[in-house]
Amino acid sequence: RLPQALIIGVKKGGTRALLEAIRAHPDVRAVGTEPHFFDRNYEKGLEWYRNVMPKTLDGQITMEKTPSYFVTNEAPRRIHSMAKDTKLIVVVRNPVTRAISDYTQTLSKKPEIPTFEVLAFKNRTLGLIDASWSAIRIGIYALHLENWLQYFPLSQILFVSGERLITDPAGEMAKVQDFLGLKRIVTEKHFYFNKTKGFPCLKKPEDSSAPRCLGKSKGRTHPKIDPDVIHRLRKFYKPFNVMFYQMTGQDFQWEQEESDK
Predict the structure, then answer these.
(1) What are the boundaries of the signal sequence (predicted)?
(2) Distance between first and last Cα of the chain
């Protein structure tokens, strides 16, 4: 079947962790790879997309995740025309850490790229942030959300905190299961905290086999970034964050985090 629920974003927010956790639910069947249908493969048509999906039984939910959908202009309209009652899940995290994580991922593939500082500024002296750089642009959540709200009511979109997915995975998963209309089967029994990785790993409650942790590409060490650059980025994002909190009716407390440090 075509999916009834999609994890649409955001890149480096925790979408893989969320997908793995929700796949532990017996009533969910999900594609492991990202189909990129609504951004890159749309011309292949809905039949192609349907064939990518796993087979399901009655009462099971079909899902997929492609984090770039959230920032793709055409995605909301295309998803709406497939099924206007599709449930959408967005994992968001502090846009500053998200941007650094995004850069870290690119750096691991292309070690020759300029430093984060060079890419982040249009003009370093004036402190002008380059909002056209995708690592920074993705984190302007309010801007992208506006596009989705033209097609979907807020009640059809669940915002998951990437931070709480690490500190309280069972709590966030309870919200996800409620949103999808599922029994709360994925609970704290499914998680154990891996100190080396710094985030939770999944285990099957009845199964004594080793817990599944996310792969090597997750939890990379971030490069050291000049504190002044981080300060300027926080200032840049703050008004957008506030707007996002107002739009979603949820305070993700990214500003509080900063004052604790």
Answers:
(1) none
(2) 47
